[in-house]
Structures are given as C-alpha cells and as structure tokens.
Amino acid sequence: MSTERIQVLVIEDSHALRTSLAALFEHYGHRVDFAADGRSGLALALAQPPDVLVLDLGLPGIDGLRVCAQLRQRADRHIPVLMLTARDTVDDTLSGFEAGADDYLTKPFDERELLARCLALSRRHRVGEVCVLQIGTLSIDRRSGEVRRQGQLIELQQTPQRILLELAEAWPRTLTRSELIQRLWGDEAPMSDPLRSHLYLLRQALDKPFQRAMLKTVHGIGFRLEADE
User: Is the peptide bond before 209 cis (omega within 30 degrees of 0)?
Assistant: First the structure.
C-alpha cells in the first residue's frame, strides 16, 4: 500500500461498520473522523474539510444524497466524495453522481478497494490546492474563476466555464448529456439543444490554440476531459 497519509471523514450510521473502517484506515496510518447522521456529518465536513469523504446513503436526519448536494452548494472547495451504500441499481448510481459524488462503491465491498479508491480521490483533489483543480496542464481556480492551460489564460463565457468546471470535477469520468444539462439548468433547460453552442465556444477557447484536444465527445454517452500530458 501507498505510504501517503490522508484525512478521511466517514458518515455512516452503522456502529459495526464505523469500527471496521476505523481499524482499516488507522492500520495504514490514515486519520479518520466519524459522524453517525447526515446533519452532523455535513457540519463536520464544512468545518474541517477532509481529503476524502466516505458517505453512506441511508442516514438518519439528512440522507446521503442531500448531504452531498448541500456540500457541493456550500463548501468553498471540492471535497472528494465516495458514496458507500447497499443500493446497487443503475438508477441509484446515477442519482449518486447527479448529487455530486465522485465515486460509488456498493456493500459488501473489499476493504483494499475502498482504501485504493480513497487514495485515488485524494490525489485528484489535493487539500493544498484548496480551490484549484489541476488536470494535465489545465488549471481551474474555483474561487477566482481563472482558467489556464500551459500557463496561458483562457477567457470563457459563463456557461462554457460552468461546463468546464463540471467536467473537471467529474474527471476522469464521463458526464452524460442529460446529467450535464441537469447540473447546468435543472428542470429549466432550453427547449432546443442547450449544449451545442456552448460546447463549441468551449472547444474554441480550450482546444483550438493547442495541439491536443482535451474536450472529448464519448459518442452515445456524453463528454469528458482528457489530460494533455
């Protein structure tokens, strides 16, 4: 296992599972905090942002989907969220991603896989880079809105910039077309193709000045970013 040490917050109402996860993370030298309900877990995540949040769905008070959605609205940084749940249908998985989850693991699970996924998520969103997402030579400052590629400032209109941020936060996962539309406009999406013109503008600014395209269309599914190095 990696010698990297991370801070993990587990929001889980099962005492037995909390005990098991405490032993797992502490065995490998990681720091771990716990909350047994959604409301206190959300407050702890906002007050002391962890490197990774392991989030159960079936929580008392506020369920995991609402915790994740509120975290995305209120946090001043991107906190990687791994949803851990017994709900294993495709619809359940999509609901988790639409709420803002970065990864999804169903119970029962292999502890080594859980640990590996947490480490992967922590590397993608370093705590030292509080508001900066970095993918290859692309950097996005969530607070200032500044976007740079290969050190070059990229000027974007509001909607193309929001599309880029959604894709960057989901990276390396593909966002479906419907998922992206829902995140941008909710239930008030334009009647015509709402993404076409904005994706064109994003490609013109993000990819045209460079040799390698980062914005990829996954035919029949949606869109994703591809690192350029």
Answer: no
Alpha helices in the chain (DSSP H): 15-27, 38-47, 64-74, 90-98, 111-124, 158-170, 177-185, 196-206
Q: Where in the chain do CATH 3.40.50.2300 domains reside?
A: 7-124
- The residues near 62 (Cβ < 8 Å, ≥ 6 apart) are 37, 38, 39, 42, 70
3-state DSSP assignment of residue 202: helix
- List phi, psi (to 5°) of 159: -70, -45
> pTM of the entire structure?
0.55
CATH code: domain 7-124 is 3.40.50.2300
Query: What is the block-wise mean pLDDT of the chain (229 residues), using blocks of 10 residues?
Result: 75 92 90 93 90 91 91 84 81 81 86 89 62 87 85 93 89 86 77 86 95 93 89
What number of CA atoms fall less than 13 Å from residue 7's CA on the CB side?
12
Find out whether 164 and 171 touch, Cβ atoms under 8 Å: no
Backbone angles phi, psi at 121, to 5 degrees: -65, -40
132-225: what CATH class? mainly alpha
**Helices 38-47 and 64-74 meet at what angle, rounded to 10?**
20
Q: Which residues pair with 225 in a beta bridge?
A: 215
